[in-house]
Design brief:
Helix content: 25-40%
Strand content: under 5%
Structural class: mainly alpha
């Protein structure tokens, strides 16, 4: 209920393509492909097909 009220009261503009790209370029380290990072879990040496 509160979420619906907030959605109606707050109009957040949609980012443009250039804003998406600027955010990505400034935060590339957060978009890592091929590496799983789970806080508090060490995956090195784990014998699993999910961990390469």
């Amino acid at each position: 209920m509160i979420e619906q009220m907030l959605d109606q009261a707050v109009a957040a503009p949609e980012p443009t393509e250039s804003e998406y790209r600027r955010y990505y370029e400034a935060n590339k380290s957060q978009f890592v492909i091929g590496q799983a990072r789970i806080e508090g879990v060490a995956l090195e040496g784990v014998d699993s097909p999910l961990v390469q």
